[in-house]
């Protein structure tokens, strides 16, 4: 028994960590325009890790579907990013979501912050192309 009696009812009430011992971070709204919202959730193996997994959720509150949906991400030179494939390229209407995972490594953790530029593009059902950029710097202390 590895937990040596330190169960969930240890009385410490430490809300910095989830039950698995990993640090937890608040969800961040990275973008919210034209009925499209981008939420970031964060996960790290431990607080000292230089790499953060960012789970992006793209939500559509419009009444029409958005097609050819892409989100490109640019980061400054002190960051390295590896972006996984999106779960779809069509953002269904009225609450539809697409998810995409990014691994971001901050080589200057502690001295330079995490920031990124999103380039979001999609087509509306009427065939109109939309292309937007958003700078995101409101990250929790990762």
Automatic annotation (TrEMBL):
The keyword Endoplasmic reticulum does not apply. GO terms for cellular component: Golgi apparatus. Keywords: Golgi apparatus, Membrane, Protein transport, Transport. GO terms for biological process: intracellular protein transport; vesicle-mediated transport. Signal peptide: none annotated. Pfam families: Alpha_adaptinC2. Residues 1-28 are annotated as: Disordered. Residues 1-18 have a biased composition (Acidic residues). It is found in: Endomembrane system; Golgi apparatus. Residues 23-140 form the GAE domain. This is GAE domain-containing protein. It comes from Hemiselmis andersenii.
